[in-house]
Amino acid sequence: MGAGAMLMGYNLKVECSTTPNHHKSATRDACLFFADNLAVIDRCSDDVYILFTCDGSTAMTSLLDDTEKKLIGIKSFHDRKSG
User: Fold this and answer.
1) Which of 10, 14, 19, 60 has fewest C-beta within 10 Å?
2) So which domain of life are we looking at (predicted)?
3) How many CB atoms lie within 10 A of CB 7?
């Protein structure tokens, strides 16, 4: 919802603004695409969010579990190295 709302309003200033400081590009400024697997890293809070869109099959569940284990391993390695 958030990305879709951002995309819909992305060039709103160009279309509605009466101020002279707007620019309309000949090429697209943004693109919305479907990502069925992604990892988001929040550097401010040091949180990691993993998103897998699946039907609950065992293969996708094990992929999610494997990814979680790898991320925990990276954190453990970083903690040992910096501590």
Assistant:
1) 19
2) Eukaryota
3) 13
**Cα Rg of the chain (Å, integer):** 20
pLDDT digits (tens, 9 = 90+) for 12-60: 566 666 666 666 667 766 666 788 888 888 888 888 888 888 777 777 7
Distance CA 37, CA 53 (A): 6
For residue 18, the one-letter residue type is: T
8 A C-beta contact, residue 17 and residue 11: no
Q: pTM for the whole thing?
A: 0.46
| Strands of the chain, DSSP E | 37-42, 47-52
